[in-house]
Amino acid sequence: MLIAVIFGGKSTEHGVSVATGVMTAKEVKADILPVYIDKNGVYRAGKINSPVSAKKLKKARKVYFKPALPYFFTKWKKYRIDCALLCLHGAYGEDGAAQGLMETLGIPYTCSSLAASAECMDKDVAKKILTADGVKCLDWRVITKDFYALGSASACAVASTLTYPVIVKPARCGSSVGISVARDGEAFVPALEAAFKYDEKVVVEHALEDFTELNCAVLKKGAKYVVSEVEMPVRKGEFLDYFDKYGASGGKHIIPAPIEESKRAEIKALALRAFKSLGCAGVARIDFLVDKDGKAYVNEVNTIPGSLSFYMFPDMTKREICDALIEDALYEFSRKGRRKTEIDGELFCGK
Fold it and tell me: Structural domain of residue 304, as residue ranges?
């Protein structure tokens, strides 16, 4: 079996994706083809089972595709891919783009489907699905760049329907990129303009001030689900920002989270419910905000979480998690293969 471990990508989360891919490639027991996507979106393949180094892969052979053929082609060679292990974070990787490519090529892949990936990447769409299913999310509003172009006063009027402070987020970015808190209308416009640098659609939420952040991951293995331990990420500011997550002194978390067992059980149950509600597969990390009264809200769902959330499953090794991801990818692929693609009977168009 040949597994293509794909990482990098045309995204603000490029570096994080490289770190996830390099680490993950060491844990796959099958033959691997390391595939690096540069910042221009060009796919490059290393040698089978070669040590994974992003620096070397930047000069590796370009990879090409032919629709409906499960191969990665280089100028001189082709590789029959049995499964793609996607380690892509953010745009063009976690948003359904890479999943759509794999669907077109007919290659199983280790994460949520095209539709579920796109839904989860868009915070507005994900919230609509979750709230419709009875899962609590903080109240929010959406402002598009086109609407803002009509005048900042209209955008401020939308924000004023929430209680300040508000948190302003690009709708389709991850890793807290482009996020800021506005404590009044004067600070709101700069926050909105900062978010628009990363997306044409922005989500505005009421910002909790006395809250706890908790995360929980779910791993799907065919028809079975494994729920991780609950973690408490450590933040320095008003919210968990990019540098809290990935900076030199960041990436800190307390696991298991120091919370009551009843709250731990609630978060685990809500994580599984959100995972199923959004139709996720593979592994996904569900991030929660818990207010001072103990109410838990789903903040966002990450369908390809950093480090694939290896550390959140203390009872499983990284290799076992990779095996489970590949198993689930093949399971989902086989289910799709059983769908009918033709209508019984003939369709007469006449002459």
Answer: 210-336
d(CA 132, CA 301): 16
pTM value is 0.90
Please report, for the domain that includes residue 285, its CATH number.
Answer: 3.30.470.20
Which neighbouring-strand residues pair with 35? 6, 45
How many other β-carbons are positioned within 10 Å of the β-carbon of residue 77?
11
Contacts of 220 (CB under 8 A, 6+ apart): 226, 275, 280, 281, 282, 283, 328
Residue 30 near residue 2, CB atoms below 8 Å: yes
Q: Is residue 133 situated within a structural domain?
A: no
- What distance in Å separates the CA atoms of residue 77 and residue 45, rounded to the nearest whole number? 11
Q: Evaluate whether residue 132 is within a structural domain.
A: no
Q: How many domains does the chain have?
A: 3
What's the full length of the chain, in residues? Answer: 351
Burial class (CB in 10 A: 0-12, 13-18, 19+), 30: middle
Tokens of 258: 């120091």
pLDDT at 340: 65
The answer to whether residues 243 and 317 belong to one domain is yes
SS (H, E, C) 193-225: HHHHCCCCEEEEEECCCCEEEEEEEEEEECCEE
Question: Which of the 8 DSSP states describes residue 52?
Answer: P
Pairing of strands 224-233, 211-221: antiparallel
Inter-axis angle of helices 185-196 and 152-159, to 10 degrees?
A: 110
Looking at residue 72, which CATH number applies to its domain? 3.40.50.20
**Nearby residues of 250 by Cβ (< 8 Å), 6 or more positions away:** 243, 244
- Asked if residue 64 lies in contact with residue 74, where contact means CB atoms within 8 angstroms, the answer is yes
In a domain? residue 325: yes
Q: Say if residue 261 is in the same domain as residue 313.
A: yes
Q: Which tens digit of pLDDT belongs to each residue from 111-167?
A: 999 999 999 999 999 999 999 999 999 999 999 999 999 888 989 999 889 989 999
Phi, psi of 199 (to 5 degrees): -160, 155
Neighbours of 120 (CB within 10 A): 29
Alpha-helix residue ranges (DSSP H) falling in the chain: 14-25, 54-57, 97-105, 114-121, 123-132, 145-149, 152-159, 185-196, 242-246, 261-277, 318-337
